[in-house]
Backbone:
């Protein structure tokens, strides 16, 4: 998401080497991320550059998860749109966050997605397209699009 934040806030692309330490025995292999040899450059399409980096990270992570490629990309799309909306809230630039979210889901994401943005009294909100695969005491999350209160 470093790529997304840099693109949204400054219109730049992050170049460099990312090293991730994922022990094979760890069931949740998200322990350490080290950014080495990084630099920034102006981008003609910062959102597309950020999406390319996120997709590459998904492909790198996929062998270390129990998810197939399509479900992993669907969850990543939900999380990316959520991050865009948080960036919009943090910077006061809600309109840009909504525009980028629509472009991401309609044009840039490599698989079809049901991820969307709705508007309520508090502003733009994420409409998840996938189950995030977190299980809370045998039930899905309250905002899960797949039968929220049904046991798994």
Residues:
């Amino acid at each position: 998401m470093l790529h997304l934040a840099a693109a949204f806030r400054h219109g730049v692309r992050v170049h460099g080497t990312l090293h991730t330490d994922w022990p094979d025995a760890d069931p949740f292999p998200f322990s350490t991320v080290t950014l080495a040899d990084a630099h920034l450059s102006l981008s003609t399409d910062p959102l597309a550059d950020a999406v390319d980096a996120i997709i590459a990270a998904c492909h790198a992570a996929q062998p270390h998860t129990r998810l197939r490629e399509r479900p992993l990309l669907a969850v990543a799309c939900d999380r990316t749109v959520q991050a865009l909306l948080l960036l919009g809230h943090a910077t006061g630039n809600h309109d840009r966050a909504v525009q980028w979210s629509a472009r991401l889901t309609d044009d840039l994401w490599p698989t079809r997605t049901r991820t969307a943005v709705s508007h309520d009294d508090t502003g733009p909100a994420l409409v998840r397209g996938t189950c995030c695969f977190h299980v809370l005491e045998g039930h899905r999350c309250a905002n899960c699009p797949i039968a929220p209160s049904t046991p798994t």
